[in-house]
């Protein structure tokens, strides 16, 4: 065990993982499968029971998980799964092309960078962009997402954006819808360098069944985002986005439930 690990926590998690594979367990069965002393297992089970994650049938000697274990997965969202599915792929591609990649997911009216390969790139414009929030209506990644998400989602987002901007007679809304249509036709979006940033980004959607679930962006120094650069790396981005989508769709999304397994 590594120096910074807490043994009691690791053991408790191993008990939870094993118990989630079947409906009920005896102390002896847990002892056989985990090779932990029964006294240690009893203390772990008693603690989990007092916290509401394990229930005990003392008369028959059985232990089972409670529905409270569902709380443990509440913070792990579909967006987090998308980022997890794409992280290693993005790192590999960055090591091949050198330019940094980022995976972004929508959070209300923004697109949030869930993963960035800037720490793995020798030509990154900054240390990292993880956690950065980008405007859906003006960033390359935001537009790539917005142009390829479902019509229902896009309508909701556009309504939300409209409530957050001053009334201008609908001019801004019409311009945004025109830009979205252009990006949808091209299949990608580009943000060139401007006063706010000296970098540039090329972005494509990460789609599942033709609908965007995230966005993938490649960032370069502003002056280097030329037509030849776009033509060179756009096929790479699209291929990478497809690979991330395939990896995401192949994962198991069954709910974390207690008492559903059989032995």
TrEMBL record:
Superkingdom in the source lineage: Bacteria
Protein's GO biological process: negative regulation of DNA-templated transcription
UniProt keyword annotations, A-Z: DNA-binding, Transcription, Transcription regulation
PROSITE patterns: HTH_ICLR, ICLR_ED
InterPro entries linked: GAF-like_dom_sf (IPR029016), HTH_MetabolicPath_Reg (IPR050707), Tscrpt_reg_IclR_C (IPR014757), Tscrpt_reg_IclR_N (IPR005471), WH-like_DNA-bd_sf (IPR036388), WH_DNA-bd_sf (IPR036390)
Every IclR-ED domain range: 68-250
Residue ranges of domain HTH iclR-type in the record: 6-67
Entry GO MF terms: DNA binding; DNA-binding transcription factor activity
Coiled coil (residue ranges): none
UniProt-recorded name of the protein: IclR family transcriptional regulator
